[in-house]
Amino acid sequence: xxxxxxxxxxxxxxxxxxxxxxxxxxxxxxxxxxxxxxxxxxxxxxxxxxxxxxxxxxxxxxxxxxxxxxxxxxxxxxxxxxxxxxxxxxxxxxxxxxxxxxxxxxxxxxxxxxxxxxxxxxxxxxxxxxxxxxxxxxxxxxxxxxxxxxxxxxxxxxxxxxxxxxxxxxxxxxxxxxxxxxxxxxxxxxxxxxxxxxxxxxxxxxxxxxxxxxxxxxxxxxxxxxxxxxxxxxxxxxxxxxxxxxxxxxxxxxxxxxxxxxxxxxxxxx
Length: 270
What we know:
By secondary structure, this protein is mostly helical. The protein has 12 helices and 5 strands. Strands 1-2-3 form a 3-stranded antiparallel beta sheet. A two-stranded antiparallel ribbon has the order 4-5.
């Protein structure tokens, strides 16, 4: 585990560390060849018994698989991998806020989180990209920002056109830090954004079952409701395939109805 953490560089490494902390006491003292299908099934059962979701249990097992694959393919510590069974997951979460809910939430948030939420709702950027945004990645005159490929989940650079709301947020952040756009007490934001302050703000706003990443779903849903074509939304969100934005297609039905009316039993006027 320690060698894996030292060698692997990826955006989700903090999540891997959380899963490895849970796994460590359950696998401690075992040889690599002792981690069999039965052991993995026991880890799955224990996670489900704790009430964890299928997705969370799968992420834990996938970390084990990643470590063992590296032990086999790169370190020559293991001759054969065990068979891995993953649980079935739902097709995707699409919890989004109404504009009234978003307004209530913004009122309840502390200043530093309010700025980040406003920017997230205006751009659809993921949490890590908002926290890690540098002024060197912003061009106020052109009204644009960008996420470097090394910082993007899909490992492809993402252009970020800035609307009036996003530009207003950036204007308010100017002068607070020479390098980082969003800060807390003069330092770059390093903590997880799902803090106690975030949870308490949700509670005061009367919003349930909502995570930080759902701000991205909210941004995409508002675009779809406003008639943004799916291929445009795909580019704006930095999604690699059209299938990844189809979950929002049904929200743009009103824009399609006028086209549907063109097919009738009556002949068009001559």
